[in-house]
Design goal:
- The chain is an alpha+beta fold and 216 residues long.
- The protein has one domain.
- Helices cover 30% and strands 14% of the residues.
- The strands form three sheets. Strands 1-2-6-5 form a four-stranded mixed sheet. It has a two-stranded antiparallel sheet with strand order 3-4. It has a two-stranded antiparallel ribbon with strand order 7-8.
- Strand 3 and strand 4 form a beta hairpin.
- The longest helix is centred in the middle third of the chain and has 15 residues.
- The chain is globular.
- The termini are far apart.
- About 3% of the residues have low confidence.
């Protein structure tokens, strides 16, 4: 099966040049402008060849995206992406500073934040970038009610939370991008790995900060 090409009209946003200016050390984190719109066109639009219905519960989710020009390593691994629920568990001044920073970046305090390694994003392939974005999105799951059905808030919105992998990796990532190093742990993952990847052979979990934190 031929790999699906990334449509030219949906070329991914790139981190701004100012992050790579050695004389501009004060700018190491900036909002990833255009990522939300790119995701809406590329992964959330049913007419897109890269549409993924697994993310339907995130259609109205309160997520923001951030470029980071600071190298991040955990457990001797390079971190190129991280998804987190935005919470502040600290004193009044620390909490106030953190909230102020979010408001300066995004105009509000979002529910979730996905941070992306700007250098990696600048150098990686389109398929690698798609896999990174989707991997971080998969970390935000719709919770289940006591009967095992999708849970909703009192306002009728999907009730969301941070989740770990299905197994060693999200099954959806294996299905769309290939096996990587995590195949063979369960029947579902093996079955997904038997089929040709929908997009390309990649493994992002080893470079995801969220995964490393939850495995610690």
């Amino acid at each position: 099966m031929r790999k699906k090409p990334i449509p030219i009209e949906n070329m991914r946003p790139m981190p701004p040049d100012l992050l790579f200016d050695e004389n501009n050390w004060a700018k190491q984190f900036v909002p990833a402008d255009g990522i939300e719109e790119w995701i809406a066109r590329t992964l959330m639009d049913e007419s897109s060849p890269l549409y993924n219905p697994d993310h339907a519960h995130l259609r109205d989710a309160d997520i923001e995206y951030l470029w980071a020009a600071v190298e991040n390593k955990r457990q001797m691994r390079r971190v190129v992406g991280q998804c987190e629920e935005v919470t502040f568990r600290s004193g009044a001044w620390q909490k106030g500073r953190q909230e102020q920073q979010m408001i300066e970046w995004f105009g509000r305090v979002p529910a979730y934040l996905i941070t992306l390694d700007a250098m990696y994003a600048r150098e990686c392939s389109d398929a690698e970038f798609c896999a990174l974005i989707e991997h971080e999105m998969y970390h935000i799951a719709q919770e289940k009610d006591p009967f095992g059905s999708p849970a909703f808030t009192k306002d009728g919105m999907p009730k969301l939370g941070i989740q770990s992998h299905d197994v060693e990796e999200f099954v959806g990532i294996v299905r769309r991008y290939g096996v990587g190093a995590a195949a063979g742990k369960t029947a579902e993952l093996v079955e997904a790995s038997k089929r040709a990847p929908e997009i390309g052979q990649l493994n992002i979990s080893q470079a995801c900060g969220t995964c490393i934190l939850r495995a610690a």
